[in-house]
Specification:
The protein contains 8 helices and 23 strands. Among the domains are: 119-293, Sulfite Oxidase, Chain A, domain 2 (Alpha-Beta Complex), CATH 3.90.420; 312-432, Immunoglobulin-like, CATH 2.60.40. The chain has 435 residues and is an alpha+beta fold.
C-alpha cells in the first residue's frame, strides 16, 4: 500500500486541473484532449462539413457539425462526459468554509447527480485513504469495535433514496431577498440521492448497546472534526452508514469514503468523513448544537435539537433567469420534500396565493425524498405571481412568509420552509418575489 502524503501544492494542482476540465467542456469534441488522435488538419476537416452550413454559435461557443450523420464522432473515454452544450455547475466555487449550491433549476427528475450535490464545508474537503480509514464505535457498549471499509462491505447492504438539506437552506432568500435570486440561490443547499451502506442499527447490534444509552455522538474526520449528537432512537431506525451514492463510491466532497445519512434530519448532523460513533447517556453539547444550529425565537428563547426538516417546496421553472416566450401554455414544475414523511400533495397558485390548484405528483413518492410536481399553466400575458405549497403525510402545510415570520421572527437562522414566489413580468421575465 502506498503511503505517499498529499501536499497542499498537489491539491491545488488538482483543483486547477478540475477547473481546466470545466473550460475544456466548452470545446468542440475534436478539441478535447481525450478525443481520437488526429492531426490538427484532420480535426479541422472532421469539425467542418464539406459543404457550408449554418453557424453553431458565436466564437468560443460549443461547435457541432451541421450534419452529424456525415462526420464520425469521437471515441469512448474512461468516463462519460456531459455534452459541451450542457454546463450545470455548483456555485460558488473555491469554498473551504461555507456552501456550494446545487443548480436546482438545471435538473430534471428528482435525483441530483453526485457531482452536483451541494457541498457545505467547515475546513475544506478531507482527503482520506480508504485503505487506512477506520470507524470506531465505542462508549456505552459491550464490545468497542473498529470497523474498516472492508468490514462494512461484508455486512448486509441497504439502499434508500432521501434528501440531504442544510438547516440554513433558504437563509439568503429570507434575510436578504433580491429579485435576481435563482432556485440555486434560494434553495440550492439541498440535494437528493440514492445512498447505499450499512444500517447503523447493524453496527450497534454488533457492539452491544448498554442500558442507559440515549444518544450517539457522530464525529467526522475533516480538519474541523465536526461532531453532532444523534438520538439513539434515530440511529436504531433508518440511519445509514453510507459508502456509496447514486451507484458509485461517495464523491470526495460528499464524505468519501464513509458518511452518516439520517433521512429527514438536518444536513449538519449527517456527518461526512465519519470516523467515530460514541454511544452515550446524554448529548455532547458540541459547538454545532449550542452556539450553532439552534433556532432563535421572537420571545428571546431558542429551539434546540430541532432535527427534522419541515415540509417545503420550490418551483424550479419558470424561475429566474428564465424568460417566457409569450402567452399560452407553460409547464410549472418544481420539487417538494419533507423530513416527516411523504409529500401528499402540492398546490400551485398563479395569483399570489389567492387561489390554488392541485399539481400532479410524479412517481415515485418516497418518504424524506424529493417529489417532482408539475402543473400546466395558461399565461394570459399579464403580470403574475407563481407559488407552490407542499403538504406532507402528517398534515403539515408549508406556511406563508407572513406566518413563518410571525412564529419564527426576523432573526431566525435555520429551517426556512416558508412559501416561495416567482414574479412573471408582462415581458415574460421571471424574478424572485421579494415581498
Amino acid at each position: 500500500m502506498s503511503d505517499r502524503s498529499i501536499s497542499r501544492r498537489a491539491l491545488l494542482g488538482g483543483a486547477a486541473a478540475a477547473a481546466g476540465g470545466a473550460v475544456l467542456g466548452t470545446l468542440a469534441p475534436a478539441q478535447q484532449p481525450n478525443a481520437p488522435h488526429t492531426t490538427p488538419s484532420e480535426a479541422a476537416r472532421a469539425a467542418q462539413p464539406s459543404e457550408p452550413g449554418p453557424s453553431a454559435g458565436p466564437p468560443g461557443a460549443p461547435q457541432a457539425p451541421p450534419d452529424p450523420t456525415k462526420v464520425p464522432g469521437p471515441a469512448s473515454e474512461a468516463l462519460g462526459g456531459r455534452s459541451p452544450f450542457e454546463a450545470p455547475a455548483l456555485a460558488p466555487t473555491g469554498v473551504t468554509t461555507g456552501a456550494a449550491n446545487t443548480p436546482l433549476q438545471a435538473l430534471s427528475g428528482t435525483i441530483t447527480p453526485s457531482d452536483l450535490h451541494f457541498q457545505r464545508h467547515h475546513a475544506g474537503i478531507a482527503v482520506i485513504d480508504p485503505a487506512r480509514w477506520e470507524l470506531l464505535v465505542h462508549g456505552l457498549v459491550d464490545r468497542p469495535t473498529v470497523f474498516t471499509l472492508a468490514d462494512l462491505k461484508r455486512l448486509p447492504a441497504t439502499t434508500r433514496t432521501c434528501f440531504v438539506e442544510c438547516a440554513g437552506n433558504g437563509r439568503s432568500a429570507y434575510r436578504t431577498p433580491k429579485r435576481e435570486l435563482t432556485p440555486q440561490d434560494t434553495d440550492g443547499m439541498s440535494s437528493n440521492s440514492e445512498w447505499t451502506g450499512v444500517l447503523a442499527s447493524v453496527l450497534l447490534r454488533e457492539v452491544g448497546v448498554r442500558s442507559g444509552a440515549e444518544w450517539v455522538v457522530a464525529e467526522g474526520g475533516d480538519a474541523s472534526v465536526l461532531n453532532r449528537s444523534v438520538p439513539l432512537e434515530k440511529m436504531r431506525g433508518d440511519a445509514l452508514v453510507a459508502y456509496a451514492q447514486n451507484g458509485e463510491p461517495l464523491r470526495m466532497a460528499n464524505g468519501y469514503p464513509v458518511r452518516l445519512v439520517l433521512p429527514g434530519f438536518e444536513g449538519n448532523m449527517q456527518i461526512k468523513w465519519l470516523r467515530r460513533l460514541e454511544v452515550s447517556a446524554a448529548p455532547t453539547m458540541a459547538r454545532n448544537e449550542t452556539s450553532k444550529y439552534t433556532d432563535p425565537l421572537p420571545n428571546g428563547t431558542a429551539r434546540q435539537f430541532s432535527f427534522v426538516m419541515d415540509a417545503k417546496s420550490v418551483i424550479t421553472s419558470p424561475a429566474h433567469p428564465e424568460r417566457l416566450a409569450g402567452a399560452g401554455w407553460h409547464q410549472v414544475t418544481g420539487l417538494a420534500w419533507s423530513g416527516r414523511g411523504r409529500i401528499t400533495h402540492v398546490d400551485v397558485s398563479a395569483d399570489g396565493g389567492r387561489t390554488w390548484t392541485a399539481a400532479a405528483l410524479q412517481d415515485p413518492v418516497l418518504p424524506a425524498a424529493y417529489t417532482r410536481f408539475t402543473h400546466m399553466w395558461r399565461w394570459d400575458g399579464r403580470p403574475a405571481r407563481l407559488m407552490s405549497r407542499a403538504t406532507d403525510e402528517t398534515g403539515a402545510v408549508q406556511p406563508t412568509l407572513a406566518e413563518f415570520r410571525r412564529v419564527r421572527g426576523p432573526g431566525t437562522d435555520y429551517h426556512f420552509n416558508h412559501i416561495r414566489g416567482w414574479d412573471v413580468d408582462a415581458d415574460g421575465r421571471v424574478f424572485y418575489a421579494v415581498d
